[in-house]
């Protein structure tokens, strides 16, 4: 007879999900309300306002899609694209490739702007793509590429799209709450994210926001959106701002309690303070890793503080190190993806995982495991280097 499942208490320092604080887990356990209960409708309005704060936007069409970040991505594409459209897609990692998949499944043509993994999206290449394809109606790119730990210049790319009368679709799954994100200031048009990264909420919800320009495109469509569930004109009947809500789907009520709590925590800390906390712990981690003798895979000016790509030393067994960290220290870090598989580790400092204790625990555990593998590291150097940054 199968019994209840009780997971161990892990420290999550991979590419997501991140550690979920007790306040958020506690919110999940509150009594379930009906998804049309007036009290829950009031909570929906609060969530919308908190998401507008997190995204730095006044967009009326701002809401949490009742599915993971991949559904938020699909929501942006299916609502803004129609068969025959041309879309410039920037790919410098795994998730740019997923954008291409979405474009093609909408019956549109993807013009690819390819950059080397570990490098940011090239503004010049994107500009050249518009020159060659002036009919392009959308520019799609990843702000914070989770597969490589690279930040691209979202402000410049959104401005480029507007310069060519195109909409921008922006993946902020790993950036929301962790680094500067200014939807209105940058003029981003369709932006999607996830709850399980720097918001430190449970996985399964995707915050999205659409600019007035994007809403105008949605409302002027001549073809039905290919996804009934993700059709924003239908969803807004439920998530709209008035008191009368039309049933669309049964919202994940308790998961939305959790999202609300995580957004309240972000508001209490303050956006700028959250960004500064991620940057500080990133600096300490990098100092410790480099003092140990390891090197970072991404140039300093493009690194994501919340997702650190680290080169695996020669002769080190990638899987054995990650397995030892998990089994002996209950600590999870991520493997490299695609072209970087076996070459890099991805160490997350996202949301609640971005804590001084986690930085120091990871450095001590990694030094122990690498030392047993006979790696050429500087034993005893990592913790003092990190602590010097944290004390500063």
CATH topology of the largest domain: Aspartate Aminotransferase, domain 2
Our Rg estimate from Cα atoms comes to 21 Å
- CATH C-level class of the largest domain is Alpha Beta
Low-confidence region ranges: none
**Total of DSSP H or I helical runs spanning 4+ residues:** 14
Question: What is the multimeric organization of the chains shown?
Answer: single chain
Helix content: 40-55%
Overall residue-averaged pLDDT value: 97
Architecture overview:
This protein has 392 residues and is α/β, with parallel strands linked by helices. It folds into 2 domains: 21-268, Aspartate Aminotransferase, domain 2; 271-391, Alpha-Beta Complex (Aspartate Aminotransferase, domain 1). 43% of the residues lie in helices and 14% in strands. It is built from 14 helices and 14 strands. It has helices at 22-28, 38-55, 69-80, 94-105, 123-132, 154-163, 183-186, 212-219, 232-239, 253-269, 271-292, 318-329, 356-372, 382-391, and strands at residues 11-12, 61-65, 86-91, 109-114, 138-142, 144-145, 150-151, 167-171, 190-192, 206-210, 307-311, 331-332, 334-335, 344-348. It has a 7-stranded mixed sheet with strand order 2-10-9-8-5-3-4, sandwiched between helices. Strands 11-14-13 form a 3-stranded antiparallel sheet, with helices on one face. The chain has a two-stranded parallel sheet with strand order 1-12. α1 runs antiparallel to α10. It is globular.
């Amino acid at each position: 007879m199968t019994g209840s499942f009780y997971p161990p208490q892990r420290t999550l320092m991979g590419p997501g999900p991140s550690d979920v604080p007790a306040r958020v887990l506690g919110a999940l356990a509150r009594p379930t309300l009906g998804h049309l209960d007036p009290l829950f409708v009031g909570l929906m309005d609060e969530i919308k306002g908190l998401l507008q704060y997190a995204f730095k936007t006044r967009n009326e069409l701002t809401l949490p899609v009742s599915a993971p970040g991949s559904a938020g991505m699909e929501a942006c594409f299916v609502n803004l694209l129609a068969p025959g459209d041309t879309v410039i897609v920037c790919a410098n990692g795994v998730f740019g490739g997923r954008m291409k998949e979405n474009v093609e499944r909408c019956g549109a043509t993807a013009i690819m702007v390819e950059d080397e993994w570990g490098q940011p999206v090239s503004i010049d290449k994107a500009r050249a793509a518009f020159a060659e394809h002036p009919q392009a109606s959308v520019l799609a790119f990843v702000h914070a590429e989770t597969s490589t730990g690279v930040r691209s210049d979202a402000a410049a790319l959104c401005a480029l799209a507007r310069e060519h009368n195109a909409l921008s679709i922006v993946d902020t799954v790993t950036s929301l709450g962790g680094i500067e994100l200014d939807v209105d200031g940058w003029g981003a048009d369709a932006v999607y994210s996830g709850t399980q990264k720097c918001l430190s909420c449970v996985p399964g919800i995707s915050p999205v926001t659409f600019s007035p320009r994007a809403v105008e495109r949605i409302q002027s469509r001549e073809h039905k959106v290919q996804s009934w569930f993700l059709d924003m004109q239908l969803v807004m009947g439920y998530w709209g701002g008035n008191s009368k809500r039309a049933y669309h789907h049964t919202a994940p009520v308790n998961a939305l309690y959790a999202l609300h709590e995580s957004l309240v925590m972000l508001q209490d800390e303050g956006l700028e303070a959250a960004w500064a906390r991620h940057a500080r712990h990133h600096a300490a981690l990098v100092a410790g890793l480099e003092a140990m003798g390891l090197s970072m895979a991404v140039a300093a000016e493009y690194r994501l503080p919340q997702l650190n790509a680290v080169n695996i030393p020669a002769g080190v067994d990638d899987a054995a190190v990650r397995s030892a960290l998990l089994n002996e220290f209950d600590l999870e870090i991520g493997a490299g993806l695609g072209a970087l598989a076996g070459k890099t580790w991805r160490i997350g400092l996202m949301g609640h995982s971005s804590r001084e204790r986690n930085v120091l625990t990871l450095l001590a555990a990694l030094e122990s495991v690498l030392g047993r593998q006979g790696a050429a590291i500087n034993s005893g150097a990592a913790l003092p280097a990190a602590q010097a940054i944290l004390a500063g």
